[in-house]
Amino acid sequence: MTTMQNINSKNNYMPRICFMSHHLLRTFSKPIIEEYAFRAQIETIDASFEQVLSLANERISAANVDVFLSAGSNASILRDGIQTPVVSIDVSGYDLMKALIKAKEISPNVGVITYGDAIPSLDDLKSLLLLNLTQYHYKTPREAQACIQKLKDKGVEVVLGSSIIVELAQKAAMKAILTYSLESIRIALDQALEVGRVAHLEQTRFEQLNSVLQTLPEAVVAVNSQEKIIAINHAMKKILSVESHDLRGRTLSEVQPELSLKDVLQHHTEDEIPSSVLQLDNRDWVSHKAAIFENGQIVGAAITLHDAGTIYTADTKLRMFERKRQFTARHHFGTIQGDSVALKNTINKAKRYSKSEFDILIMGESGTGKELFAQAIHNESHRANQPFIAINCAAFPETLIESELFGHDDGAFTGSKRGGRRGLIESAHKGTLFLDEIGDMPLSLQTRLLRVLQERAITRLGSNTPIPIDIRVIAATHQPLKDLVALKQFRQDLYYRLNTLELRLPPLRERKNDIALLFNNFLKSSLTKNFKNHAVLDEIQHLLSSILNQYLWPGNIRELESVAKRVAILLPTLATPIDQNLLYEELPDIFTKHSISDDADQTLPANILHPHTSPKAPFENLKTQFDKATAALKMANGNHLQAATLLGISRTTLWRWLNK
To answer: pTM for this structure?
Structure first.
């Protein structure tokens, strides 16, 4: 029996999932399949053992499947016989426990039959549940039938197993219980959705790459098994000074002996051929030769020339890029600048937290230094010499973030790295995993992250084997997660799991004593070494000191650093006495308003906008926090972020005041 659920959408690609199972499992799964009908194209096929591979290959040949979903023997056969990704519906320990309890209600004499290997942990459950438990395993239908007969001969009354086992037991007039649960099927479908999306994305990229090979800037020429040219791009023709000639069909070694591919064609090797350097057209080139195989037979070869100068430039950029990606933490508590009480209290709390192994949630506005604190906590902990993996949850496309976080197994999807690849979470083993902007993580991944935090194990895409990991998780956000939980945009259980230890970073407006210190340090580091006009430097520090202290700094330290850089660019053009109009022109925001944004309500009272007036002044006569919050909201035209800024508090505090 074959059915197809849903059709493709023009705007949002829906993965094509082929669910191959025994008819009993298909019937049992029907409610979940219907639940996912608008998220994927799901074809359900009744098949087992001898049929499953031929039916799967038909779908692969027709190119109408991204991922197969199956269970038990079917999943094992598919995974061994095809290259297309296969996601297996697994029986969890909880599923097995529920099935055993249900079986005990029927009879204490219970049999369990599994495909492949036996389950060692069942022996522990036998004594725990006071069951007379017998376990067999099979690899062929005949062996499965024999297992059923053995159980019946032993007087076993109820059998647990897959769909095939349930059907055979029922034919033998025995009670039977399916070990799979709807939740296990839902989990497998979620994984199949993501594997299907990634596989489709990789396939699309491969096709796009194939279509632009002729436009590559590298010089490329390919020959057949007789070394006759079958393809050559414009870049190679230009090197050979034959732009107007058609070289197809000519022998490459005769056209240019330096490019000969005879050695590659004669050696018939699939091993990587070392690159070499040659000179053509008065330039140095790095050449790479490769054999072309079809069905294990050599059918041609190709040579690619890379400009040596371009490689040198690319190598420099790559080394710089790799240095940025090194899994290390550079900052320590000693690099955090400031003497304010608010900062010192925060540092002391962070140092205490660094000595524990509990997860930490860092709350703070944008630009307050959340990653700096995360690195400092890591370097203060006993994990200091282990990896520090920083992940910006808002930076990855949703279609790729799961494979980046969890990695993938060998053959998980088309184009996946041979041998599989570790994900970023697995790379943090023994160290610290820093999840920045956790509030922007897609809901679909929050469930998997919660499981990682609970189990301290990850499962790569395309794999069924959990990999234990030893990590300390630090998450950070500038968003009010409690509000996101209330709006069902963030999982409540994940929030409380992450929020074991909460570290709130004070905004710069609460660190008045640190502003001058930070500004002066940023300014000095931004000035060129040749700047020697100390009189101008002293005067501008004096002129700006009170203004900087009264500005609200919505961008916090990041904004302060930007202001310092602007002043550093301006300083060489100034002379004493400094014309303040030049400062007004260069720093209009600092001198004209305390608003958090440029499009703030221009009708705000002058005492709010004037730089020498405290932003809290209009609210000092109001008695309750609720009255102050509502007044600020009214003044800010309902803008919560701006209202919080006017009050000099965080958005989280504003929400708390409004709920009093």
So the answer is: 0.45
